[in-house]
Specification:
Aspartate Aminotransferase, domain 1, alpha/beta, seven-stranded mixed β-sheet, 14 helices, Aspartate Aminotransferase, domain 2, 37% helix, 2 domains, four-stranded mixed β-sheet, globular, homotetramer
């Protein structure tokens, strides 16, 4: 397939230079279904990016679409601030019954503004309020969002520089395996906490991703996460898991931390929580932390009711039993096999991942970009991540068929070969 | 009409204590159309709050609803990051043709995350980057959002305290009429800027609302806004108008600053820009300020395409000619007449406003809450604002009929009388 | 008298460009006595600067000199950290008997590092610790020192820029008469404190100079100071008077705030407290504020015992009775008369002052520098102050004779005439 | 010898609770000579603390005393701001001839306020100004001073808490041997600098002590210092050596970094630079860094001329040849032998040091305090350091005789035995 770059005039003349994905994927997309998008010229693309993890159930999933149209047709509340609505109640009950109760998770549910960064901002505020301390520890190559609170715990130097002010109150610690196993876990962090002369401001909380997506698909081991939870308990710090990209089944279980058997104090969810790509986010926390005053954090669109409708439908359709989790693990094995074969032929690459999130790291960062560029020409949407964009990131919808997955992986193999 | 408070069980047991509006309006809402909501018991409510200004065209506006359902039905892109899509192109072209070009406004358009606070965060980042300074001046009783960057330029002490860190890099200045006309405009601000010994960190920008909604419906005069623009030019500071609540026709013209004849350097829009209550926001700026690097600010849901569809439909339907603006001014006169009559009978109250945003301030703050509580019992949704919640805020949909408006205003009059 | 600029070689080649006074006074000084300095070429200079207020009793005052030499001769402790010494005890007892008790001042005494900025740092730390708040209010054109804590409450933009980090946690308010009496005192400050929506972080303390020396000899009225004290009490903020330059008798009474009849919560002293120009500083505070833990603030040279010796001698010699205060007021009248005459002839100048600190402000800042330059040529040491160095500052030793004072004032008059 | 605790009344009633050393040494000291102090009851104390390193040439050193008295007698300038004086010139020339030139050090000399923390503040300001970055890296258990700028790069949690504001813009890194050699030097630091996703704000400078005095006598190896210098060069960061306590011969050479063969970009000196315990400090830097504007940093007592006189005399008397350095090393060997013997008998203690600064660390921190308390009873002044005050610190005057040193070491041995 050959793609003719369309005239992007209004995007180039009117939209800000800040736009990014559209530069690597110079098409004007029009429709989408499942794992496929179609541009206005009728070209079809297989989606291995899934809205950066926002489309775990595929584009315009028919089950959710039906529920959404029904709701709109019947003039259900669209914009509800934080008013009680029947749609919100249905979501809350479903979330409790399908997600929280079976996992024995005691969380209260907060609806921040419907974006990931807003969920993180609310989590950080709450942790600081509960502990009465300003400092928060994050990890190397973390990504938590672009508003000032979230950006201060984000690692990327380029994004941090955009703040325009010195970002403070956050201290980075080495993520799992940062030194390839040569340094004991938490050696530095724990020593700083225990040494009264270390100069570390005692943190209110630690914020962590179980798998760092933007940071380069860095996978934390279950024992590392457990040790982190124990360290937090021992040192009176709250543990925040930012499950915005890795939650909602991306790694297998609904929450990415289930596998490790930990129960974070605070959890943020967004991206795929609405299931349909509609803006929505949640901040979950243990009941004893719920010391918010009414309205102490708010947001105009926190009651995005159409998203509640698709969210409840997605939970009902996909999480009432364990099929999705099982299928994600199987699809993950399929990816792993393919990457094993690709890397066997390509010694400058290595791969890692969990569930349906995988990364292929190239020694030469330019190679990763070249692979993605070639993939686009061949109708496959792939993106890079990592501090130098050196990692090709695989994030297909969880609902992708084995055939589609196989097709995409074969295209990837071809791209790797052709860019050698 | 008498409302029986419903059993709010799951809201009370599962949702965080942070919830607020639902406490003053103890109903479970189910459907809505135009200026009316219906709860699950079939009670009807007249909406004088309009989603805090997010529903300028009423709930589930039929014209927008049609466009939205058509788009969803045909599997248009739902979640598009910042990819080029046909829906985004249609919005951009419409925004340029219907809004920017007729007003001779040169702005570039940025899509931040789809909430107001995210638009403000991007505006502040850009201003700081352009000027290379950290400090931003805001005004007394300003409200710009709840993430850390926006919160630092927000006035409310209760909301600021929620930050959990000292909020810095912002300095408040007196808003128009803060001293009831006894002090010359900008006396203090200008003197601080000119005095090399004043201790003010030179600001990168000034952020202002033309009418402070959350701050108590404080209306800046056109000449004050013009003088502010001149001060910004003279002192090499960028002027940011936060038009999130007052833009999209709320005060008459599409932008609230049109009447003053000023052209801010940066403008933020959100709330009613999608027209249908869907999350969406824009940051507009003069082309010479567009020094963003690709991806220097981003957000997962910045390409909320269903919102682009309703936004374009709303612009086409309501802004291709000047009818809405004319009608808003007429409806505003209707409100003004009614408030004049109410305040003639109630000497402890005074009112102010512009277009279709009005406030009634009571000497006793408790009275404002009592009026809203009684209004709810009578089926009218009203909220307070102001630093002590001493102002009853009128924010009906722009599309409200004169009859509905009259009905609500009569109910308001009754509430004022009955709470005396 | 004509001065030949000496070869300043080692100063120019080895000392940093940061040096300043030596540029305006290009002589190499060798000896000094009372109000006169002598350079290495034998030229004599009359000192109207007095070490920026550090030499209230003149250079090498014979009474203090005797005590100092005796102490050194007998091998009294020179460096004592915060150990108890007989010299420190003598100072403490004298300070209590001569200064605190007769004025009924209840202060505890702290010895910070022996510089003014260190005293201010300790005052700010203590205020923040006591109140548990970060913010401190200072005034336009305040000067409190050059270390980061003090610099954040200092007004001068040039000096602030030297910090290299954004200075935060301080907010400037208008000093007395900042708007020439056109705005009621504390209108803005009080309104910000009372308005819960003002955006002002509630301050722990207010720091003020009764006469701003570096800021341009701005004299606060007694009623303004009293109103400030009342405002602090009403709003639960500590009142810190920085009496480093204006204390030790400069304005008449030992403390410059005595005349206003106020009792600040915290007072900083330095400059002339040792009397002999030796480094020493004190931080005084009400006993109930003394919540310091042992060693929570310290400093290597806080026990500069030779300074304790001269300090005690100075208090004994000059403050056991009211003669100095009386004499300072008389000398002040002499200055006032002379300035009145000078300004009668020079309409672009105006003057102000109290006790023996006076300023002459010129419309054209260059004129003030020209006056000082000419004065140096004529053997008179004068310096400028104010945000644009537009004020000629008169700060002669308190012990100056009427003849010397007259001589200097006549020279000043001549300089004003000759620079017209 | 038995000491009767004297009545400390005025210290207890008038002086602030912040006082500390006087609590451990409950005597009122009166006179001192060389390594001995005498209290008012005539008891004599051997000084192994030397004014925290401010009295390297002993108390009231007769050579310096003579020069000082002569200067005072002849009415030399006492207080000179930053005016050129004959005393300052003599110091500058001596410093250049005796210290800088023989060591081929190119430094410019700045006179900050005459305390260590002021020197550090000026060093940090300059580094930030030169590099245009806010962040500075310090090390675990560093001590740099108590004003806000210095405190932000100081490790001790108790002292940091005294700031009353969150201390930011500083990041601690592990000092040499922090992990007992199990982790490669600078592994974490270098990785953070190289990883664009690490979250570390790029530092303007690194500030380090070659031997951490307050931190517990932690001795950096020469190769570690060299590697640090190389890292700074490679990463475009300035290297600041804080030589306030370890400079002026404490470790052997005049500068403590000479042995490592490095040339820091900026050096701070204070404590023993005046030689006589008089307040004085210097900030030295490479000429190309001297971008200060005149007066951009200043301080009332930066021209403490009596200190210049004793400083020049000390340099002349002790540094014109290499005898002091040689002698310090010999005395250091004497200490090392004694500590070796003591620790051979006391397995819970270990020791470390360089030149004439040594520490004995006890497993049980209370033991270190007990040793010091017993030492005081026996007429020996000893202090603890380290994050838990677990290290007994030996800091005798460099001019101590072998007999005095032996006496003190025997007393120390006795104290260790008697507190077992």
């Amino acid at each position: 397939m050959t793609i003719t770059p369309p005239a992007l005039s209004v995007f180039e003349t009117l939209e800000s230079e800040v736009r990014s994905y559209c530069r690597g994927w110079p098409a004007v997309f029009d429709r989408a279904q499942g794992a496929r998008l179609t541009d206005e010229d009728g070209h079809s693309y297989l989606d291995f990016f899934a809205g950066a993890g926002s489309l775990n159930y595929g584009h315009n999933n028919p089950v959710l679409k039906r529920a959404l149209i029904d709701y709109i047709e019947r003039d259900g509340i669209t914009h509800g601030l934080d008013m009680a609505t029947t749609a919100k109640r249905a979501f809350l009950e479903t979330f409790q019954n399908v997600i929280l109760r079976p996992r024995d998770l005691p969380y209260k549910v907060m609806f921040p503004g419907p974006t990931g960064t807003n969920a993180v901002e609310s989590a950080l505020k709450l942790a600081r309020k509960v502990k009465g301390r300003e400092s928060v520890v994050s990890f190397t190559n973390a990504f938590h969002g672009m508003s000032l609170g979230s950006l201060a715990v984000t690692g990327n130097a380029f994004k941090r520089a955009g703040a325009g002010i010195p970002l403070v109150h956050g201290t980075p610690m080495p993520f799992d395996n940062y030194f390839d196993g040569t340094v004991p876990d938490f050696l530095w962090f724990e020593r700083l906490l225990e040494d009264q002369g270390s100069g570390l401001n005692k943190p209110a909380a630690v914020i962590v991703e179980t798998v760092q997506g933007e940071g380069g698909i860095n996978v934390a081991r279950a024992e590392w996460l457990r040790a982190l939870q124990e360290l937090c308990e021992r040192q009176d710090m709250l543990l925040i898991v930012d499950d915005i990209q890795m939650g909602c089944g991306r790694t297998g279980g609904f929450f990415s931390f289930e596998e490790a058997g930990i129960v974070p104090d605070i959890v943020t969810l967004s991206k795929s929580i609405s299931g349909y790509g509609l803006p929505m986010s949640l901040c979950l926390f243990k009941p004893e932390l719920d010391i918010w005053e009414p309205g102490e954090h708010n947001g105009t669109f926190r009651g995005n009711n159409p998203a509640f409708v698709t969210a409840a439908a997605a939970l009902d359709a996909y999480w009432a039993d364990g099929r999705v989790e099982q299928q994600t693990k199987e699809r993950g094995l399929q990816v792993e096999q393919a990457l094993l074969a690709i890397c066997a032929e390509e010694p400058t690459a290595q791969f890692r991942g969990r569930g349906l999130v995988w990364g292929m790291e190239f020694e030469d960062p330019a190679r990763a970009s070249a692979v993605c560029a070639r993939a686009f020409e061949l109708g496959l949407l792939l993106e890079t991540s990592g501090p130098q964009s050196e990692v090709v990131k695989l994030l297909p919808p969880l609902t992708i068929t084995t055939e589609e997955l196989d097709e995409g992986l074969r295209t990837l193999a071809r791209c790797v070969r052709e860019t050698a």
